[in-house]
């Protein structure tokens, strides 16, 4: 009888569905920026779709995400419930900051989104278009201050590429780095910098409200829903797309990695996530598992070459 009861309990336990994971997602930047938005969008989708019962987001800003990355690697080892968001900006920041901790030390899960860079100016600015910006840049590169994200990140790289494309020494670019989108936005709106540069989603509300004017977008062709010329249409032969990703902790097992991948896959195919992408103007660039890990390695190599070319690393 005891054996029968024990067997029944075991069988019942096996039949129960697995409990939804409780995740902790680190956004290695201040509130308001792209990584913070990505982490909180994941939080919303995972919970709304009941993929996870509870998702917490914590912010650890500084040095293009490398401070948060170091903390994550040191404290999350072996814990499959801990995730970190990052992206192209972090790839560059690791190189420019000579970070001792790299993305080789985490478990890549997936590239989630892509977003084009937007150039904006305050509504009262005398810069009306790309031509106006280029004229000022050529006349006195140091007098044009660029407000954007971390040094060596996508925003900084884009500014350097624009300068190089119009014949200005990219090392002369007066770039002011901010640790989060909220800080950068305040500086741009307050006229503390000449031009703002970041992902379109970080400026979308202000563009719609008319407090910021968009003068260019970094796509190859016009983007549906964004009323702005491309850099190329404005006479600057530059195109670039930022991307954002999620990674898991180092030291997790293959089975744990597969479980995280399954949850992320459910999230990116959900109605909640689809709506978030549409609302924020993010492109779905989902690439998961080993394919993403291979692409991440290629992107790291190509970013190193770009940073050397525009004088941000030796």
How many structural units, i.e. domains?
Answer: 2
**Distance N terminus to C terminus?**
75 Å
CATH class of the largest domain: Alpha Beta
The overall pLDDT average reads 92
Low-confidence stretches: 1-18
The CATH topology of the largest domain is given as: D-Maltodextrin-Binding Protein, domain 2
Strand content: 15-25%
Instruction: Give the CATH H-level superfamily of the largest domain.
Output: Bordetella uptake gene, domain 1
CATH architecture of the largest domain: 3-Layer(aba) Sandwich
What structural class do you assign from the helix and strand content? Answer: alpha/beta
- Helix count from the secondary structure assignment: 11
Overall spatial form: globular
Tally of strands: 10
Q: Name the assembly state.
A: single chain
Give the H and E element order.
Answer: HEHEHEHEHEHEHEHEEHHEH
Helix content: 40-55%
Q: How many whole angstroms does the radius of gyration measure? A: 21 Å
* Biggest sheet character: 10 strands, mixed
Protein name: Putative tricarboxylic transport membrane protein
Family: Belongs to the UPF0065 (bug) family.
Signal peptide: 1-20
Pfam family, one: TctC
């Amino acid at each position: 009888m005891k054996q029968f009861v024990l067997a029944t309990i075991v069988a019942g336990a096996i039949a129960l569905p697995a409990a939804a994971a409780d995740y902790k997602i680190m956004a290695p930047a201040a509130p308001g920026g792209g990584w913070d938005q990505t982490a909180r969008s994941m939080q919303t989708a995972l919970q709304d779709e009941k993929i996870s019962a509870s998702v917490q987001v914590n912010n650890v800003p500084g040095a293009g995400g490398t401070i948060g990355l170091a903390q994550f690697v040191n404290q999350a080892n072996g814990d499959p419930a801990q995730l970190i968001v990052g992206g192209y900006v972090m790839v560059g920041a690791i190189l420019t900051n000579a970070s001792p901790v790299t993305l080789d030390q985490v478990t890549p899960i997936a590239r989630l989104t892509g977003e084009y860079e937007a150039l904006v100016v305050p509504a009262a600015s005398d810069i009306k278009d790309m031509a106006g910006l280029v004229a000022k840049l050529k006349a006195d590169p140091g007098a044009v201050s660029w407000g954007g994200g971390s040094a060596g990140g996508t925003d900084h790289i884009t500014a350097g590429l624009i300068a190089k494309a119009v014949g200005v020494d990219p090392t002369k670019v007066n770039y002011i780095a901010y640790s989060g989108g909220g800080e950068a936005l305040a500086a741009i709106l307050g006229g503390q910098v000449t031009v703002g540069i970041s992902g379109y989603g970080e400026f979308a509300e202000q563009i719609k409200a008319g407090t910021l004017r968009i003068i260019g977008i970094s796509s190859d062709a016009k983007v549906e829903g964004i009323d702005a010329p491309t850099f190329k249409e404005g006479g600057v032969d530059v195109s670039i797309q930022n991307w954002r990703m999620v990674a898991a902790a180092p030291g997790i097992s293959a089975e744990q990695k597969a479980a995280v991948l399954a949850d992320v896959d459910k999230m990116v195919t959900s109605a909640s996530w689809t709506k978030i992408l549409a609302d924020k103007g993010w492109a779905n660039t989902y690439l998961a598992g080993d394919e993403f890990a291979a692409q991440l390695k290629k992107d790291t190599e190509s970013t190193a070459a770009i940073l050397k070319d525009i004088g941000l690393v030796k």
